[in-house]
Design brief:
Elements (H helix, E strand, L loop, with lengths): L1 H36 L4 H6 L11 H10 L1 H32 L3 H13 L8 H10 L5 H24 L4 H9 L4 H12 L1 H17 L2 H6 L8 H13 L5 H22 L1 H13 L1
Helix pairs in contact: 3-13, 4-5, 4-7, 4-10, 5-7, 7-10, 7-14, 8-9, 10-13, 10-14, 12-13
Length: about 280
């Protein structure tokens, strides 16, 4: 009986790890396809997209960087992501703290409004929103930052709200007795205790903003100041006039995803930890 039990556990373990390996391979297959084709000419890609390149020639990467105006586009994308994420973190964390500490019917209603707004798809409001901002003269980069801040506020507040409940109230009371005003209490006492959920909020919103195409396309369109994904789209449209030059498309996509992929790999351990903690405590 004991031997049968251990044999059953071993078989289950092998099946479990086999399934995980299969899922990992399925997940990594598009990235591998992107990598090997970023170093091949158009003909080799069309003939056999799964084959390894004959030589790891960086000329196609250099061409893609030039076509995308890469460093200018990545600079705009970085500034937009940095400012928008900073706005989301500061506003959502303070809103969640106030809502969690003031347990009234009004605070509950406001929190439920934040949660309910997460269910509204962007496509349902995008045209009225764009028209409204255009009427205000904000169909530009500052307007884009405000929109990103607004759209990222709901989910971030929800995550912070659950986590704030785990912060001991006695810590804040001690800070108040020591003479801290409300902003000192929040930024020097509460905010450091929210580090893990803050990293999670930063990663989720940064990946979304960095990779977003639709909102920049609607707001700034084909202006000279493009985000990286928007530059990729217009480079693809320009290249499409000459057929399907895959030798530009694959390296362009490759260099576009590198920065945010590197950030994700270094900070991924915080994502599940922060989301689980925030959701459980909510």
């Amino acid at each position: 009986m004991k031997q049968h039990y251990f044999l059953h556990r071993r078989t289950a373990g092998i099946l479990r790890y086999g399934l995980l390996v299969a899922l990992a391979l399925i997940t990594l297959a598009p990235l591998w396809l992107l990598l090997v084709n970023a170093f091949k000419p158009n003909g080799a890609i069309v003939d056999n997209p799964l084959a390894m390149p004959l030589s790891w020639d960086f000329q196609y990467i250099r061409t893609a960087v030039k076509q995308l105006d890469y460093f200018k586009s990545i600079g705009y994308t970085f500034v937009i992501t940095l400012v928008a994420v900073s706005l989301i973190v500061i506003v959502s964390s303070m809103a969640a703290w106030i809502l969690a500490r003031n347990k009234t019917k009004i605070s509950n209603f406001v929190f439920m409004a934040f949660v309910a707004s997460m269910l509204i798809p962007f496509q349902a409001i995008m045209y009225p929103l764009i028209q409204f901002f255009e009427g205000l003269g904000l169909k530009n980069m500052p307007g884009l930052l405000v929109m990103y801040g607004g759209f990222g506020l709901s989910m971030s507040t929800f995550l912070y709200h659950g986590f704030v409940k785990g912060v001991p109230l006695g810590v804040e009371e001690a800070a108040f007795i020591d003479g801290c005003h409300i902003f000192q209490m929040f930024f020097f006492i509460v905010m450091p205790l929210l580090k893990s959920i803050t990293v999670t909020v930063i990663i989720i919103n940064a990946m979304w903003i960095w990779n977003d195409y639709l909102l920049p396309f609607l707001v700034i369109g084909n202006s000279s100041d493009k985000t990286l994904v928007l530059a990729l789209y217009f480079a693809r449209i320009l290249a499409g006039q000459y057929g399907n030059p895959w030798q530009l498309i694959f390296p362009a996509v490759f260099v576009t995803i590198i920065p945010i992929t590197v950030v994700f790999l270094f900070l991924q351990k915080y994502i599940v930890k922060g989301i689980n903690a925030g959701a459980i405590k909510a």
